[in-house]
Amino acid sequence: MDPLLDEKIVITLARGFTEFVQENLQLHAVREAYGPSRNEGLCYEACSGIGFGGDVQGKLYLGMDGYTKLKMLPVIFERFGVNLSERGMADSVLLEFSNQIASSIIQELQDAGYNLTLEPPENLNHKLVPVDLSSHRQYILIFFLQDRRGRKYMGRWYIVLTLKKF
Known about the structure:
The protein is an alpha+beta fold. It is built from three helices and eight strands. Strands 1-7-8-4-3-5 form a six-stranded antiparallel sheet. The chain has a two-stranded antiparallel ribbon with strand order 2-6. Strand 3 and strand 4 (58-64) form a beta hairpin. Helix 1 (5-25) crosses helix 3 (90-111) and helix 2 crosses helix 3 (90-111). The protein is globular. The model has no long low-confidence stretch (mean pLDDT 91).
């Protein structure tokens, strides 16, 4: 067992998210805070949960508040080439975007020699998600999003990582 596995995953997650947002949305994601968390649950206005298994088991939650969702949806819709006027597309587009972020990060971990598989994303918008701290370790990363070209504040994106204890 690798005693630094959690740290490697958190660092890969932080770097991978920042690079993904920069490459795909041309936005800057500045890590504001990160570290272990003892929260017994989470709830965000927009939230996706993506599980993974293999050498390590856990779940990645990508959440944002309403302000961030309103600012980010047009940018994400433009990336996918979806018309903003189409009703009911926001949740599925956000799920697909979250899945692509998770896939990118899992791929980096696979390239580093870890055997991991990704589960389908699930929509957890407005849902209270309990976290069992007796069987999972939890880490939170908070990213400040900004469009430097337009000098706009885009909000904060919260990433919660839970890893099953051995």
